[in-house]
Design goal:
Strand content of chain B: over 45%
Number of helices of chain A: 0
Largest sheet of chain A: 6 strands, mixed
Strand content of chain A: over 45%
Number of helices of chain B: 0
Order of helices and strands of chain B: EEEEEEEEEEE
Number of strands of chain B: 11
Oligomer: heterodimer
Structural class of chain B: mainly beta
Distance between the termini of chain B: 37 Å
Radius of gyration of chain B: 13 Å
Largest interface: A-B, 21 and 29 residues
Radius of gyration of chain A: 13 Å
Distance between the termini of chain A: 40 Å
Largest sheet of chain B: 7 strands, mixed
Helix content of chain A: under 10%
Shape of chain A: globular
Shape of chain B: globular
Order of helices and strands of chain A: EEEEEEEEEEE
Helix content of chain B: under 10%
Number of strands of chain A: 11
């Protein structure tokens, strides 16, 4: 079945790296995503990775994909207070629709 | 280019009523997806419309329905509202090409409160 799991909370100090982890069950997933949601705001796509890749880097963000273990992680380097938000892991089979989301990880950044 | 717009932004209804939410996708986008976000269940996929046809469907009861018009605008209807339908309803649009990656762009959502 379709299921995406992630831990609910993460607290880090400003300047440290944050690592948010996610596991998914659908081996047919084609794309895996990380979205960010700030209070009162909609969802913002941070990055995505195609299932035949194992790593993607975009400025402070690094995504690692272990397809064998169905494990996805998001590393945020030099975490800032502005990074405080809920981060959703998600997967889809097709080109971005029917996206299945995890419950979200709330990231707290302490100054 | 204007983003995804949703109307209304806030809505208060009572149990048993019905409600219609509207979503206008980004110009040129043909796919519109709807999601329900609640504190308890998180973000759940409702359905996706492409070229006026429902192409994908989540696991929601028949009280939840939708449609898409020829200009790609979409409406979502919930009949016989229940307290548990209180949620943020998010709409997302994309080009809808099933053979390649299409980024989904999310609207700000409609906050529905059922009393």
């Amino acid at each position: 079945g379709e299921d995406v799991e992630q831990s609910l909370f993460l607290s880090v100090r400003e300047g440290d790296s944050s690592v948010i982890n996610c596991t998914y069950t659908d081996s047919s997933s084609t794309y895996l995503y990380w979205y960010k949601q700030e209070p009162g705001a909609g969802l913002q796509l941070l990055t995505y990775i195609f299932s035949n890749m194992d790593m993607k880097q975009d400025q402070r963000l690094t995504v690692l994909l272990n397809k064998k273990d169905k494990h996805l992680s998001l590393r945020i380097a030099d975490t800032q207070t502005g990074d405080s938000a809920i981060y959703f892991c998600a997967e889809s089979r097709g080109g971005g629709f029917k996206t299945i989301f995890g419950a979200g990880t709330r990231l707290f950044v302490k100054a | 280019k204007a983003g995804v717009t949703q109307t209304p932004r806030y809505l208060i209804k009572t149990r048993g009523q019905q409600v219609t939410l509207s979503c206008s996708p980004i110009s040129g986008h043909r796919s519109v997806s709807w999601y329900q976000q609640t504190p308890g269940q998180g973000l759940q996929f409702l359905f996706e419309y492409f070229s006026e046809t429902q192409r994908n469907k989540g696991n929601f009861p028949g009280r939840f329905s939708g449609r898409q018009f020829s200009n790609s605008r979409s409406e979502m209807n919930v009949s016989t509202l229940e307290l548990g339908d209180s949620a943020l309803y998010l709409c997302a649009s994309s080009l809808g090409d099933s053979n390649s990656y299409n980024e989904q762009f999310f609207g700000p959502g409609t906050r529905l409160t059922v009393l």
